[in-house]
Amino acid sequence: xxxxxxxxxxxxxxxxxxxxxxxxxxxxxxxxxxxxxxxxxxxxxxxxxxxxxxxxxxxxxxxxxxxxxxxxxxxxxxxxxxxxxxxxxxxxxxxxxxxxxxxxxxxxxxxxxxxxxxxxxxxxxxxxxxxxxxxxxxxxxxxxxxxxxxxxxxxxxxxxxxxxxxxxxxxxxxxxxxxxxxxxxxxxxxxx
Length: 192
Ligand SMILES: O=C(O)CCC(=O)C(=O)O
Ligand SMILES: [Mn+2]
Hints:
By secondary structure, this protein is an alpha+beta fold. It is built from three helices and 15 strands.
């Protein structure tokens, strides 16, 4: 389904992967992925990022994310299969994936644009979710009269952001007071 939003190109497929398969992928990936606790520097202080992350991709790629220099781990069989399935639908040959593990409602990701120079102009980013439903919020950067867009991301769903979306909108996964279980997200990207 195309989500009508000014200055953006967003497609949301709520049932990209079936319910049963999603449970299976959540279990396998939580176990198999080499999760890292990264740190971020803010105002001269060092904090743990409020989630665990991992980066997988073709060998030889390098990516800087929030000031952290990352080297990709080689694709696992499961990730490779998911990458191919997602690449076909998004009509984009992805070569890397950033994985996020939100352990509970206190884990989050603040407002940002995926606009690192390695992604090039108008990147297509495909975001796959397994586990707890969390709200993906988009806010327009310059036009404050445009209402924030909230998209609850279901387990097994695929969200594709393309075109000029990253120039005009920031997105986040806020913390929630609801009692939610673990959520795993894979954002497939093309590193140029
Ligand atoms: O967890 C999500 O759905 C968003 C992840 C994200 O925005 C990112 O990895 O850049
Ligand atoms: Mn992002």
